[in-house]
Amino acid sequence: MDPYYQDERATLYEGDALAVLAQLPTGSVDALITDPPYSSGGMFRSDRTNDPTAKYVNSTNTQKLSVETFSGDNRDQRGYHYWAALWLAECLRITRPGGVAMLFTNWRQLPTTTDALQSGGWMWRGIIPWHKGTSHPDPGRFQAHCEYIVWDQPGRCPSTATPNASLASTKNHHRATANTPHKNL
């Protein structure tokens, strides 16, 4: 299996996740960071069957023409849970002890994503809110400005790790920051 991209820090593969994951060696991955299809675009079942580009990219977005469509974004919650648990089990096998799993999700799929993580054999250690600063207007309702990162870490945390991490967003610039722990006096 040839990598799609590779440098001294990262290797990316392109293909069906279950097929690619099955070929990777046990304990060979430092981090699982994924933004899977949420299968939740729309308020009604018929909305979920729309093309993902139509669901997630608004008409004022200049990147609309550069976004490729993708499959797998029309599952109901049970189908999403089953599918995610399958690839998450493979990800647990290939993630080294002390590695980390970080799964992006939205508010609709948050409960299902935490359940799928656990069904795949991981523990659910927490949720990191990602305040994006913008959202689609929904008159008369609260705005859904956040997405969430569900995370776990199999095994013990390496002693060199910085445990206090946070994500922040300002306008169109997204950044991750790590904070060093404070000494107790």
What are the key terms here?
single chain, alpha+beta, Rossmann fold, 8 strands, four-stranded mixed β-sheet, 185 residues, disordered C terminus, globular, two-stranded antiparallel ribbon, 5 helices
CATH structural fold name of the domain at 13-39 and 75-156: Rossmann fold
Choose one word for the global shape. Answer: globular
| Helix count, DSSP H or I runs of 4 or more residues | 5
Alpha-beta content class: alpha+beta
Q: Given this structure, which CATH class of the domain at 13-39 and 75-156 is correct?
A: Alpha Beta
Average residue-wise pLDDT:
76
User: Based on the structure given, which CATH architecture of the domain at 13-39 and 75-156 is correct?
Assistant: 3-Layer(aba) Sandwich
Largest sheet: 4 strands, mixed
Low-confidence stretches: 163-185
Beta content: 25-35%
Number of strands: 8
Helix content: 10-25%
* Helix and strand pattern: EEHEHHHEHEEEE
Structural Rg: 18 Å
The side-by-side strand order for the widest beta sheet comes to 3-4-6-5
CATH superfamily caption of the domain at 13-39 and 75-156: Vaccinia Virus protein VP39
Q: What can you tell me about this protein's structure?
A:
The chain contains 5 helices and 8 strands, in the order ββαβαααβαββββ. Helix content is 24%, strand content 26%. The chain has helices at 17-23, 45-48, 52-56, 77-94, 110-119; strands at 5-6, 11-12, 29-34, 95-105, 126-131, 146-152, 164-170, 173-179. With 185 residues, it is an alpha+beta fold. Mean pLDDT is 76; it is low at 163-185. The strands form 3 sheets. A 4-stranded mixed β-sheet has the order 3-4-6-5. A two-stranded antiparallel ribbon has the order 1-2. A hairpin with a 4-residue loop joins strand 1 and strand 2 (11-12). The chain has a domain at 13-39 and 75-156: Rossmann fold.
